[in-house]
Amino acid sequence: MNIYKHELKANYKIAFIWIITLCGLVAMIMAFFPMMKSEMELFVKMMDSFPPVMKAMMGIVAENFNTSIGYYTFAFTYTLLFGAIQAMNLGIGIVSKEERERTADFLLTKPVSRVRILTSKLLSSLTIFVMTNAVYSAVSAVFVVSMSDGNFALTEFLLINASLFFSQLIFFSIGLIISVLAKKIKTVLPVSLGLVFAFFAISAFAVTSADDKLRYVTPFQYFKTETILAQGKYETVYIVLGLAIIVAALIASYAIFKRRDIHAV
Amino acid sequence: MNIYRRELKAHRKSLIIWSVSMALLVAGGMGKYSAGMGAGAGGFNEMMDKMPQSLQKLFGVGVFDLSNVLDYFGVLFIYLALMAAIHATMLGAGIISKEERDKTAEFLMVKPISRANIITSKMFAAGTIVLVFNVATSVSSYAMLSYYANGTLFSDGLWKLMASLLAIQMLFLAVGSFFAAVISKPKLSSAAATGVLLFMFMLSVVVDLSEKLAPLRYITVFKYFDAKDILIEGYEAAYPILSILLLTVCIYSTYHFYRKRDLKI
After folding, report:
1. Chains A and B: how many Cβ contacts under 8 Å?
2. From B29, B94, B209, residue closest to A206, measured CB to CB
3. Would you list the domain boundaries of chain A?
4. ipTM, 2 dp
């Protein structure tokens, strides 16, 4: 419990900054919706004749771009990017920081098992993600609902926003397993930014269709907002894959961290 | 000279990893060229012309002829620029602040070299690293483009883009070192530099949403070297002037602030 509280205290300021960033981002992009909408109505009519490859590549979905929730999926691409950075930072940092900041021997000499330490750290990270998502969902709902002249697709909206939470868990687990596998991580940011943006770039320009094999490579593609809007559910394959990544990474992290050589001062 | 060599050696591994990832990104992005637009894209381009202005700019498609290999590469360029910018920012911030982070500042500072001298060596080392990164990216881009070019000329445009990439790298390197010199907490300085980087990236996305926002393009370095401007629409003289100004201010402040700063030991 002490470790849990300590981690929350150590991370709440950064979490607060991330929450502000995510909400500010969605506010900034949504602010342009009214202007986009008028232009979009013209465009949507001719959009259907586009080759599907191109439509997918540009992330436009003809039927959706002129509704507030459809436009919101565009904003959500960037929410997901920033949320992924937050999660990856936390995943890579939360365990490796003890060694980096030379507090590992202080912590590990306490009468708490390593499993308990890791569990406490995971739980406090989970708390941070829950808070982030709760605030973000509330704020984004205000924008989407207020701009949606009446026909607001609640299920789809909730599914899209919940995918932020699941994606964060995936990125967090990837970060965690990297941090326990690496001998020493001197700085968190270069590693996490490099990885997240590489995933983002692959997702943005290398994935061109819904059955592209590259979709398995980047978690940014696991919850396609287009599919959620069209079918009102997630794709089963990718949920299973996402869950498998999380579970495998967590189990491996426990196994490795339990017997890892930890460099003391 | 010793510091220069030492920094090169310290960054060798990360440079190799970055160069390989850039090559993979270029290959991944260009791989879709043959799959998507190589054949029969003429009709598609016509359709793109009918797109609303704001959308065309947003996706950079109206201007680019996606059946041309160089223009196709121009669409990918923003992601390459983004990755290069992350690398350069982290390098610039890290190379200055790492002495304090790794608690080696005392060791370095008691050597008979002035602080200005240390900065100079480190800046040259960082410049060299960034240059190698650029050359590696250029080589892999050249290889991929010539593979798909099928006889079309692309080298002039490619060199222009790669020179712009180098300019972006230098600018973000300077921004990173600026923050590392001004802010004394190593963790905070790279976080601040990252904040600026992400802000500029988001701004470069948002600027395209509306003509009214066009003046904001002078704030974001990514727009200084927009592939659209470089390849097709011609270049505004304001951008190089702003770049040189920004570079001078950042490098001058790096020396100025680092010389008098209290080092955390």
Report:
1. 103
2. B29
3. 2-258
4. 0.86
